[in-house]
Amino acid sequence: MKEDKFGSILINPRCSNNCVFCKPDKSLHNDDLGLEEEKKLLKDALYFRKNGFKRIDVSGSEPLKYSKIIEFLSWLSKSFDDISLLDPGNRLADKSFASRFAKTGISRVFIPIYGSEAKYHDAAVGNPGAFNQVVKGIKNLLELDSGIEIRLTSVFLKQNIENFYDMFVFCRKEFGIYPWRLTMPYLHNDNKNIRFQDFLVSFSDIRRAVLKISRLDAEDIRIEYVPLCIFSEEDLLGFNSIRFFNVFYLYNLSDDEINKRIKDIVKDYRNQEYLWQCEKCFLKKDGICGGILREHLLNNKDYHFNPLSEDLYNRVKKNIAFSKVNPGVSK
Ligand code: SF4
């Protein structure tokens, strides 16, 4: 079985977005990192290097807003074989910044896009003007032909669910690539700023959107945290280039005190539960499916779930991207 092991480094300046499913408390962060936060970044990286990690994922709020991010990424890419960065992409709209970023030597960048037009994207990220910035940023990077792989991601939300197919067509036309990873929003259950009813979509709507994009000529789409039992047998047998992944995993964070608190928060918002139907499902028996994210389960109480038999699993397993992510990190 494939094992997927990486170290995570979180960089948290104040994010210029205010995504409906995240709503960070902006008073907790400054626009740039302070000295202590910078020291922690270095400590995190050295921890992973000392422990033999080859692959690092950098994320946070908006890591590219950190004033020394170019220097930090350039340094990281000399110490590790594979560096990924997840960032909203707003800052890449600045061509001279994008040129410096293109030379950092990192392996890939994940950039979320939430629609084919500003009205969808900006509503999802709570930041008017963000769509124009992210589109410009992606185009800048493509023009620079930097060797950094660009992977677009998106999230199923009320704000964009009717636009998913058009968003795929738009991305193909404007950037030459389809979104690669789609996910349901993880839920910060402890964040009082969030109102689930503002953005949660039903499994019926997600199923409809996935069936529509499955007719496109995409070579590889990865869908995370959408349980396979929301589809019928006929749906599953019809998928070709779609792969599903649905197991809980934790960031592999360094042993810093602050990281221990972050792990508790992540445990909470990625909490999954099994249904009674799961007892009949081969995916539970084999540990391939971790269940359903709690708030999504509450939002879909009356949904007709279709647990998978072993026989059906064997016929559709090419569509399941099961791997042990960060083995050894305790739940
Ligand atoms: S294990 Fe449960 S949640 Fe997962 S696919 Fe099967 S029935 Fe659905």
List keywords for this structure.
331 residues, alpha/beta, TIM Barrel, eight-stranded parallel β-sheet, two-stranded parallel ribbon, 12 strands, binds iron/sulfur cluster
Q: Describe it for me?
A:
Helix 3 packs across helix 5 (130-144). The mean pLDDT is 90. The strands form 3 sheets. The protein has an 8-stranded parallel sheet. Helix 8 (233-238) links the parallel strand 8 and strand 9. The protein is built from 12 helices and 12 strands. It has 331 residues and is α/β, with parallel strands linked by helices. Bound molecules: iron/sulfur cluster (SF4). Iron/sulfur cluster (SF4) is lined by residues 227-229, 274-275, 277-278, 281, 283-284, 289, 291-292, 305, 307-308.
Put simply, the count of helices is: 12
Query: How far apart, in Å, are the first and last alpha carbons?
Result: 20 Å
Q: Uncertain runs with pLDDT below 50, 5 residues or more?
A: none
Strand order in the largest sheet: 2-3-4-5-6-7-8-9
Helicity range of the residues?
25-40%
Task: Give the class-level CATH name.
Answer: Alpha Beta
